[in-house]
Write a structure and sequence with these properties.
- By secondary structure, the chain is mostly helical.
- It is built from nine helices and no strands.
- It has one domain: 434 Repressor (Amino-terminal Domain) (Orthogonal Bundle), CATH 1.10.260.
- Helices cover 61% and strands 0% of the residues.
- α6 runs antiparallel to α7 and α8 (111-121) packs antiparallel against α9.
- The two termini are 30 Å apart.
Length: 142
Amino acid sequence: MKKSTDELMNILRNKRSVDEYFDENDNEIFFGNLSEQVNSYIARKGLTKAEVVRRSGLNRGYCYEILSGKKTKNISRDKVILLCFGLELSVDEAQQLLKKCGYAPLYARDTRDSIIIFCIENSISVINTNIKLGDYNLEPLE
């Protein structure tokens, strides 16, 4: 967090919509637990929960537990990354979500992370991301 509360208040006062404010200051704002953050992205991006579940590659029941707030502990970094794919997040948005969940952001010097970054950046599906990871003998996202 880099901006003071007063700075954020001034920015907010000059925005035409709260969505614009959130989009530009996402890394400055706490959206609550993972479920609340994910549901906020779903609403802002006009997605359905079913689309997020399908695109994420996560087990359907497990993903719905996260979305409903029933599953709040022991959610691995890989599962958060899979949610990023499901939410069609940009790399910057994915980095912020990982940080908010207490995980290290994706690191471009790490082979596995750099492949994941590339795939997020280029809207490559989870299945094809895992194939690319396999091409380099790296663990798939699971």
